[in-house]
Amino acid sequence: VATRQMETKPVITCLKTLLIVYSFVFWITGAILLAVGIWGKVMLGPYISLIADNSTNSPYVLIGTGTVIIVFGLFGCFATCRGSPWMLKLYAMFLSLVFLAELVAGISGFVFRHEIKGTFHRTYTDAVLNYNAEDEASRAVDYLQHTLRCCGVYNYTSWFGSVYYPSNGIPASCCFNSSDCKPEDLRNATLALNKVYHQGCYERVTSFMETNMAIIAGVTFGIAFSQLIGMLLACCLSRIITANQYEMV
């Protein structure tokens, strides 16, 4: 039995080291999600309000998920250092839940990407048609057009049917040179042609989504399957420690 314990000890030490390293990386992942959630809430609020029909809680979901992962990452380190079998099993169970959640989220995002594009088209078109330069949706449109250097849904002619155009013309956020973009120019469709961006915002956003969807899906699935490594390490360590305790008894 003593010889057996001597052979098992290096294996336990190795598994503990690997699991602590993994838990630290897992903790960093949680910190990144937390930072992205906060950044998304602060910086991407206008974009999110246009992509979703109603106010979305996506940033709060990221903040909550990141916080939980940070807590369980620390718990994983503590459970590994303590060498507690039941704590390690609980940690493995949590990793399995995270794995399933990320897998479902990744598949859903990839499968329903066309529905997301349709929702954006509908909400952005509605925001353009009802633009008044004052409410939240209007400010979101201005922010989107100025940041992405685009104008209207498909192009600047999308503004001709808006309630804002008859008295004010095309919004100044469409201008590619604000110093050379007078209000009277924006009320004249012929003059505005040489003053505003020609590409529509719908094409800009959807082309970005199509270009980066494969990368986003790959990263999501990669992070999800990395949970399997943690689950395997935690289960193996728990089993070896339990077996070693029985042998000592």
UniProtKB/TrEMBL annotation:
UniProt keyword terms in alphabetical order: Disulfide bond, Glycoprotein, Membrane, Transmembrane, Transmembrane helix
Cystine pairings recorded for this chain: C151-C174
Source organism of the structure: Sander lucioperca
A GO CC term attached to the entry: plasma membrane
Protein name from the UniProt record: Tetraspanin
Homology family: Belongs to the tetraspanin (TM4SF) family.
Alphabetical list of CDD domains matching this protein: TM4SF2_6_like_LEL (cd03161)
Location within or outside the cell: Membrane
Protein role: May be involved in cell proliferation and cell motility.
Higher taxonomy: Eukaryota, Metazoa, Chordata, Craniata, Vertebrata
